Amino acid sequence: MAGVVLFLLSGVFTNTIAQKMNASAEITGIVSSSDATPFWIVANRYGRYASSGSQIGARFQAHSSRELANFSRSDLVLDIGADIIARPGDQSTVTFNQGYVKVSGLGLELSAGRFHNTSPVHDPILGMGSLGVSGNATPVPQIRLGLTNWTDVPLTRGFAEVRAHLAHGWLEKDRFTESPFYQEKVGHIRFGGDLPVNLYGGLAHYSMWGGKNNPVFGDLPANFSDFWRVFIGIGGDERAPDVEEDYLLGDHLGAWDFGMMVDKGAVSFTLYRQMPLETKDNLKLKSLQDALNGISLRFDESLDIPLRGITYEFMYTKWQDGPRVENILDDGTRCFDFPERCRDLFQGNENYYNHHIYRVGWATQGRTIGNPLFRINDSPISQTVWGIDNNRIVAHHLGAEFVTKSTRWRLKITASRNYGTRNDPFETPAEQLSAGLQSETRVHFMGHPVVLIADIAWDNGDLFGTQFGALAGFRISR
Known about the structure:
By secondary structure, the chain is mainly β. The protein has helices at 2-17, 39-42, 224-232, 242-246; strands at residues 21-32, 55-70, 75-87, 93-105, 108-114, 142-147, 151-152, 160-170, 181-191, 197-209, 251-263, 267-277, 291-299, 307-316, 363-364, 367-368, 375-376, 388-390, 393-404, 407-420, 425-445, 448-461, 467-477. Strand 9 (181-191) and strand 10 (197-209) form a beta hairpin.
């Protein structure tokens, strides 16, 4: 069956684009010692696997690229791809995990559909997951325009470079507030050019806005003027709920992002620090304690050593604007006296990834869009139940990648202490240890390249439970 689907997909793409096409079919099975899938089998895999324990699944991919035109400075290239997931069981689905069209040239790229992407700067392969957009959830369908890579700032002779994109997307209907829009804009500037050390900084800004059938507010403002208000981060007009009219239209979050990139040829590394944004006050760097910090080292294969990469990350998100005390604005206004001027009567109530109108939180299709340690609530979402029930976290994470002969290994170990949320703290901190070892081995079967896939993972703790599991499968390519 897999071979038939692979043949059909490759035929369609070959006839459509007829250049630089690749296709693959993958079959996997997962067994678990409990009714939950181990964390490092399911996390950061773009929602491909179910969280409900033992399962089987199939994946069919076809991606192709075609040069449309050739300019003196750049080629105009069309990319098209499809990534179909078929998964029976408790969380059964047949869906496009990816389905996209991209046109790139002259340093710009216009993309439409579902496609894999993460932001801001972090290690998407070995890290625990970005505070912004990680690889944990099924990609949000969107239209995106941005620079394809770091681009020289005029008159700096390449010493300063920028990278940025803007996206408009659509979240699913089955939410507390149905079918909200999604907006993503990310921009960075980097200094150093050809020097071995580059410094960078930037801002990632995400928002959910609009939507229908909210139990309290009904249909929310969703025209072009509202898009602009969300884009520049201001309140709504008289059609918006009171708090959004006075403060910000929609649910806004993101991260300040700073770091250093060092390239010494055979060895390179990146230092990064993401500081979460949840309110305008966070733009003033008032919660410096909260951050995802990482160091990621990469080793070129020319070194002839098995170790290809190692990443360490430390995440702390307990501060959330400090102790819960009376909120007083910069001009001395007491919010208890003038509540209409304030988003909240208290400081220390950032409540990362949660919002009182978009109560599912920073999540889609049952998965957290950002860091997967921010756990989704199992209880039905209501006016009193938040979508994310754990956002005050202290975590250490180690990731490593090795290559031995024809096998690539990836090891991930995460230890965390979890405190729930400020409004609904856990009675005692939830300790969690999760480890996973992933492997891919390239072999040939009847003259065709085949990749054998084998993972093992183990959880122990109170946040995601205690279980042991394994994944096994194969992927054939054409």
